[in-house]
Amino acid sequence: MIAPPGLRAWQPSGSAGRWFVPAAARLMRLELRHNAMPCLLPLAIALFGVLTYRKTLAMPPLWYVRVDDTQSGLVLDFATSVAGAAAWMGSREARRRVTDLLETVARPRFTRLLASWAATSCWAVAGCVLCLAAVYWATSLRASWGGPLWWPAAVVVASMPAFAALGFGAGVLVPSRFTAPVVTIATFFVVALSTELIVGSQSYWQVSPVVSAAWDVGADPGVATFYPYLPDLSIAQLMFLAGLTVAVVAAATGLPRVSGSRRLRVAAAVASTAGLLTAGTAVDLAGTGTLNAHGMIVIPALHDAADDRPLQFTPVCSRTAIPVCLNPAYAVYLPAAASALGPVLSEIAGLPGAPVRVIQSGTTYQQGPANEVLISLAGPVVSGRPPVYRLLLPDQLGGLQLSPGQLTGVLRAGTDPSVIASVVGDGPGASAAQRAVAAALLLAAREPYRALAAGTVSGVLAPGTPVRQSVPSRGRRVAGAGQGLIPAPVFAAALRFTALPASARHAWLVRNLAALRAGRITLARLP
Amino acid sequence: MNVEITDLTRRFGRTTAVSGIDLQAGPGVVGLLGPNGAGKTSLLRVMATAIPPTSGRIRLLDRDPGRYGPRQEIRRRLGYLPQNLGYYPGFTVAEFVEYFALLKEVPARRVRAAVAAAVERVQLADRSAARLRTLSGGMLRRVGIAQAIVNEPELLLLDEPTAGLDPEQRVAFRSLLRGIGRSATVVVSTHLVEDVAAACSEVVVMDLGQVVFRGTPPELEARGQAHGVGDAPLERGYSAVLSGSRS
Q1: Confidence category of residue A502, pLDDT binned at 50, 70, 90
Q2: Using the 8-state DSSP alphabet, how is residue A485 labeled?
Q3: What is the mean pLDDT of residues A334-338?
């Protein structure tokens, strides 16, 4: 060992604070290099890839749908790893028996614990941002309209320091080698099961970052497409997460007597109290949330009335006989919709009372008792002069997302009969002639006969009728198939009418549609 | 005086570890000898500001460690090696020493040089990139010494620093102690009287929480001239002092 220098090259002084920034940077570098989170990041990212990313990309390329699903999935994928790693780091000093040595250093305990927690959070946030970037990039490549929604991303990012704080606090307060696994398991159950406690739209549990939207509506394509995305719930969640983070970090690192000066401990107590108040306020705000007609949670104290105005957009339209126009966000579905509706629209184009356009419309959401939500078309099916048929794509009704191919089938079975019914007046109490003409037009459009037999010709999508109940579900449509639903004379008349040349059929309808709708034409008078 | 202790007592529950000790020390190397349970480690922990005294007065580096501000000033000028050195196995030697340099508020621009010097002084420069988990017990002890001296302390407290060191390293370590002791106060708690004989300018013998001898190594040796227990003169003096205090 060499001899020491005679005099020290520097003099310690109370002004060491001016060196704080570069020293803190070096401390952070060390903590980042020796953090447990990088070891768990591959696991969290793999979970995200397998559980969330694949599912999200299988969804329609609508920003809301994908981002909503990503928020819930990503928080679940990362929460356990982050809390576990943070608990491991929080218990490090005691596990490694360095406490005695570290209590004799000049820099307050608060500083080094804060650096350790911050490093864990940084890694978690970095991993999270990477995953979010993947989803946002993939969605941007395929989304035809709208822009990225940043509020859910902000909630995901903010939840990482919060979970890190919870885990870290547990590690500091109960330093043991078992703390991290216990925290990991507990976090999983608390996060996963918290959503089970949500009942209706007015639930305090909505403050959980796993809840990305109205929990009973979920990632519904009908939401945030015709009306702006409401950040109310996200704001409450951010408040909650920020408050929780500050409260836990301040309590775990700054409150104990050994943490630092009296002034620092007082500041920590104030910060902890403020954090708790903020988090409590956010929970209270979340409890005041209600499902609005557009499928999003409105928190009155945070709500901006300007967000209730419908979004302005230029629809994308097909070149069918009667244009089918969709919200540009649904542009990917236009070919399927045009293919499904085009033949029927050709049959009715130019008839008196026929719609001049089929326009996709928004849905309206109504919270039912418990966790039931009623989703229906907002307003009548046919409205305006000249009349416009207001279309609702099956995806807007919640439930499973459909591929364009599946969408074609569902529109043929459900919407084609409805469009015809709106023209010929088919519905409850319709005459036999009306039923025969409706069936004939469907047959002429080469619609499979089972669509008639499914009973969808009569009365579907009548104004004011809840769509969820009136549009046949995929299961019922097939299960209800059978030729016996339409009496044989009606079917025979339909076949006879179908056999006419298209021009003759059209000419007859132009002349007699008003009488047919009024019920003055009998089955025998059909050509 | 860098260390001024008056009537210091430290209790742990019903156990009195240190009882009414008076001690003053200026620059130089003070050897703290005593049997197991004599209170050496407790005294060092109080001097290291790791634990407060139960009663009595203590001033370190002319400051009162009972108050926050002065305590921080003392800690900036303090080096401490505990008896059981905890460490982070994933850190390299340099990183571990750097970690403590930062926590001791060594100016950031000086950290790199201070770490390099400390690692060099404990002869671990060639292993500075090695992770701590790969080091032997003796090397870990030297890492502990490096972190203690990285801030060029004015008060260096070492609890059993030579445990695990091989003879060659112990010789080098004594040389290091003598060098540091020229400008700083070094208090070394040890069981090894040869370390005291070789490196210390003053010896304090403790037993049952009290100081039973204080003087120079030759003075301790002189106490053992009429005592037959022990192989070396200093050991005989040490045994004589303990026997005298217990009789």
Answers
A1: confident
A2: G
A3: 89
Query: CA–CA separation, B18 vs A106, rounded Å?
Result: 25
Q: What are the extents of the domains in chain B?
A: 1-77+155-166+183-247, 84-152
| pTM of structure | 0.84
Token pair 């070094």 is found at: B186
Residues A204 and A185 both lie in one domain? yes
- What region, left, alpha or beta, does residue B209 occupy, with left being phi > 0 and alpha being psi -120 to 50 degrees? left
* pLDDT tens track for A391-422: 888 777 665 567 777 888 888 877 888 888 88
Place A453 in a pLDDT band, splitting at 50, 70 and 90. Answer: very low
Pairing verdict, β A388-391 and B28-33: unpaired
Domain identity same for A291 and A223: yes
CB B104 within 8 A of CB B75: yes
Distance from CA of B64 to the nearest CA of A (A): 15
For residue A26, which residues of chain B lie inside 8 Å, CB to CB? 98, 102, 108, 111
Which class is B1-77+155-166+183-247 in CATH?
Answer: alpha beta
Distance CA A444, CA A458 (A): 18
Q: Measured between CA atoms, how close is B224 to chain A, in angstroms? A: 32
In the A/B pair of chains, how many CB contacts fall below 8 A?
Answer: 126
pLDDT digits (tens, 9 = 90+) for B167-206: 888 888 888 889 889 889 999 998 888 888 888 999 999 9
Is A10 in contact with B107 (Cβ distance < 8 A)? yes
A338 burial (CB, 10 Å; 0-12 / 13-18 / 19+) is: buried
Spatial strand order in the sheet of B185-190: B78-81, B155-159, B185-190, B28-33, B202-207, B210-215
* Sign of torsion over alpha carbons A116, A122, A123, A124: positive
| A217 pLDDT more than 90 | no
**Which structural domain range is residue A136 located in?**
21-308
Is there a domain that residue A361 lies in?
A: yes
Residue of B nearest to A24 (CA): B102
Using a CB-CB cut-off of 8 Å, the residues of chain A touching B89 are 96
CB pair distance less than 8 Å for A261 and B68: yes
Which residues make Cβ contacts (< 8 Å) with residue A188, sequence separation at least 6? A79, A80
pLDDT of A475 above 80:
no
State the Cα–Cα distance between residues B188 and A481, nearest whole angstrom: 95
Identify from B44, B102, B159 which residue to disrupt to test chain A contact, counting A C-beta atoms within 10 A and taking the largest count.
B102
Asked whether residue A6 is assigned to any structural domain, the reply reads no
Lowest mean per-residue pLDDT among A43-47, A464-468, B12-16 = A464-468
CA of B77: which chain A residue's CA is closest?
Answer: A12
Three-state DSSP class for B27?
coil
Please tell me the distance from the alpha carbon of residue A132 to that of residue A153, in angstroms, as a whole number.
7
